[in-house]
Write a structure and sequence with these properties.
By secondary structure, the chain is α+β, with helices and mostly antiparallel strands. It has one domain. Helix content is about 35%, strand content about 15%. It has two helices and three strands. The protein is globular. The relative contact order is 0.26.
Amino acid sequence: MRKVTDCREYPSETKCTPALSGEPEEVVRATSDLALSVHGHADDREIREQTGAGLRDEPTRLA
């Protein structure tokens, strides 16, 4: 199942607004990259665990 995360759901000094969706490992990687490059977080396991914990199932789209 695809996962999604939305930066608007988290407090941020930068007022970050991207929403990311995809396979879980892709979203964790992209969200972690954003946390490093935009928010200045350290590149460590903790940030990947935090971003992974914030993922939720992407709503199913009807054709």
